[in-house]
Amino acid sequence: MPTFVRLKRELLRRFSHSDHDGMLIVAFRRGTAKEALAKIEESLAAIRTCDPQRYLRLRRDLLFVVVARAPLRAFSRFTGTCTLPERTVVQRSAGVIAGMIVHVATQARFARAGILALGPRAGRRAYVRCLREQIAFMEQLARAGWSNTDGYVNWLRGVIADAESGAA
């Protein structure tokens, strides 16, 4: 049996999950699972509504969205998984979570295209590119009427400035 099928079966058997347009969303912790799954679904709906083209790419590049006790958001190119930190998903707005998903989906798109960020300079350039994609999407959300995106966009711009100066 292929690894992907085994992984999917195991996730479905052991953890809280939902399906959003064929994309599996999994929450590992039972206490916050319902809230996390709802927030991820709302975030994906925001992406689909505000930028349908980006949503189609995201659907092609990501197979799973996993909410786990992880310190940072991450993409696994071996399983096509976007992992988001449970604490962040529960505490932040759906708009901010949508931006994080866009960031990870950009990493996925790079991996799918065979662009690997090897070395510190290439890694920093890829990171900055993902942040710029995230900012562009967050600005689309703001134009569509989503609130509470300005502060986050300003913070992301500061992160880019630090990364480009070599501080990050």
What would a concise description of this structure say?
The chain has helices at residues 3-14, 33-50, 52-61, 86-91, 94-112, 120-143, 150-165; strands at 16-20, 23-27, 64-68, 74-76, 81-85.
Walk me through this protein's architecture:
It is a single chain. The protein is an alpha/beta fold. The chain has one domain. It has seven helices and five strands. It has a five-stranded mixed beta sheet, sandwiched between helices. Helix 3 packs across helix 5. The longest helix is centred in the last third of the chain and has 24 residues, at 120-143. The protein is globular and about 45 Å long. It starts with a helix and ends with a helix. The model has no long low-confidence stretch (mean pLDDT 83).
Extract low-pLDDT stretches.
none
Q: Provide the structure class.
A: alpha/beta
Tally of domains:
1
Number of strands: 5
Portion of residues within helices: 55-70%
Q: Sketch the major β-sheet.
A: 5 strands, mixed
Number of helices: 7
**Overall pLDDT confidence:** 83
**How many angstroms does the end-to-end distance come to?**
42 Å
